[in-house]
Amino acid sequence: MAFRLVQPSVLPGFRISLGFSLAYLAVIVLLPLAALLSSTLSIDGAEIWRIATEDRTLAALKVSFLTALAAAAFDLPLGLLVAWVLVRYDFPGRRLLDAMIDLPFALPTAVAGIALTALYAPNGWIGALLAPLGVKIAFTPVGIFIALVFVSLPFIVRTVQPVLADADREVEEASASLGAGRLFTVLRVVLPPLLPTLLTGFALALARAIGEYGSVIFIAGNIPYVSEIAPLLIVIKLEEFDYAGATVIAAVMLAISFAMLVAVNLLQSISRRRLGHV
Amino acid sequence: MSDVATTLATSTLANGAVAPVRSVRTAPRPRGPTEDSPAARAVAIALAVGLLMLFLLLPLAAVFVEALRKGFGPVIEALSHPDALSAVVLTLLVAAIAVPANLVFGVAAAWAIAKFDFRGKTLLVSLIDLPFSVSPVVAGLAYVLLYSTTHGWFGGVLDAAGIDIIFAVPGIVLATIFVTFPFVARELIPLMQEQGRTEEEAALSLGAGGLRTFVTVTLPNVKWALLYGVLLCNARAMGEFGAVSVVSGHIRGLTNTMPLHIEILYNEYQFAAAFAVAAVLALLALVTLAVKSFLEWRHAGELAATRRH
Amino acid sequence: MRLDIRSLAKDFGSTAALHGVDLTVGSGELVALLGPSGSGKTTLLRIVAGLDFPSRGSVWFGDVDAGRLSIQERNVGFVFQHYALFRHMTVADNIAFGLRARPKRTRPDEAAIARKVGDLLDLVQLPGYGGRYPSQLSGGQRQRIALARALAIEPRVLALDEPFGALDARVRKDLRKWLREIHERTGHTTLFVTHDQEEAMELADRVVVMSQGRIEQVGTPDAIVDAPASPFVCDFIGEMSRLPVSLSGGRAVVAGRPIALGLASATARDGAGHLYVRPDQIRLCEPGRGDIEARITGVRRANGLPRLTLHPLVARPGAGEGGFEAVVLDAAPYAVGQTVGVTIAGGSLFAA
Question: What pTM, to 2 d.p., does this model score?
Answer without folding.
Answer: 0.82
